[in-house]
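Changelog note: in this version the structure field was regenerated for every chain. One regenerated record is shown below for reference.
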Amino acid sequence: MSNARAAVWRAPVLLALCVVFFDQLTKHWAVTGLGADRVIDVFWTLRWNLAFNSGMAFSRGQGFGPVIAVVATLVIVWLLVTLRTESSKLSTFGMGLVIGGAAGNLVDRAFRNEAWLRGSVVDFIDFQWFPIFNIADICINVGAGSLILNSVLSARRAKTLEAAEFEEARGAAAAADAKNATESVTAEEIPEP
């Protein structure tokens, strides 16, 4: 693997590994430090409250853990493959967060129960007016937002570049027309012998 190709993979993969590490560290703390008899009020409505989710976001799709795990694996692989074509820092950042968040929740599904891929995702961040979530969920959402923002900004840059190229081509055509007109006038002014 060339240095340029390795550099493209290095930043998002390192970011993803950091996300998985921090996510699993906080989930371990939640599993060992929280429970039905222990909820920690932080401030306002925020509290640390242990919950397990065998479904997908917002506790939808309960019991579809294996399917969700397979889809998450496919998304991770697809994002890793598309890293070769990404060049912006914002898209690299977004992909690293999404890959890390998906992998963090996939680790829970794979290893938090006796049966392979039948585990539940550990959630513990509870605002009491919003579904309970975790660090991986935050990273997935921030990463997805970064990818969407990058897409919008890339489209604007492409449109601006296209407009600039059009103006440049129009200016070049006008200059060529002016040059041709000058040469035509000059040719008419030269008397024939």
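Spot check on this record: The longest strand covers residues 46-53. Helices lie at 3-33, 65-82, 89-111, 135-189.
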